[in-house]
Amino acid sequence: MGDAQSITQYSLTEDALTQMARRHIDPDLVKQVLAAPEQTELDREGREIYQSRFEKDEPPRTYLLRVFVDVDRTPPEVVTVYLTSKVKKYWRVDP
Q1: Total-model pTM
Q2: Do the beta carbons of residue 10 and residue 68 sit within 8 Å?
Q3: Based on the number of CB atoms within 10 Å of its own CB, is 54 exposed (0-12), middle (13-18) or buried (19 or more)?
Q4: What are 28's strand-pairing partners?
Q5: CA distance 3 to 5
Q6: C-alpha distances in angstroms, 7 versus 54, 67, 92?
Q7: Which of 1, 15, 20, 67 is the most buried (most CB within 10 A)?
Q8: Which one, of 71, 54, 67, lies nearest residue 20 by Cα?
Q9: For 73-85, what is each residue's pLDDT tens digit?
């Protein structure tokens, strides 16, 4: 797991924009995760996953927003985004 590094300048790929629209993910939520992620992890060389937990729905449920970012370019490029209720599957607990 990498150290969480704030990303404030970035671009969104067409796929990321499509997935955000299809999945009803607010761009401000993506911006918030990139600026202050709770966790980051390396997906592969040059690509990191930024993620944070959020509550939504009634009754409130915890979800995880995962943002896949190609960090090997300037500005970093968001390649896809998704929200999952399977927090335990992706959340890393420090040893």
Answers
A1: 0.90
A2: no
A3: middle
A4: none
A5: 6
A6: 19, 11, 21
A7: 67
A8: 67
A9: 999 999 999 999 9
Summarised one tens digit per residue, pLDDT across range 9-57 is 999 999 999 999 999 999 999 999 999 999 999 999 999 999 999 998 8
Q: Which of 37, 71, 36, 69 is nearest to 51 (CA)?
A: 37
Q: Quickly tell me which residue has 């592969």 as its tokens.
A: 44
- Which one-letter DSSP state was computed for residue 23? T
Query: How many angstroms from the chain centroid is the CA of residue 28?
Result: 12
Return the pLDDT at 5.
83
pLDDT of the residue at 93 = 84
User: What is the per-residue DSSP string for 41-88?
Assistant: EEEETTEEEEEEEEEETTTTEEEEEEEEEE-SSSS-EEEEEEEES-HH
Question: Whole-angstrom Cα distance, residue 61 to residue 72?
Answer: 34
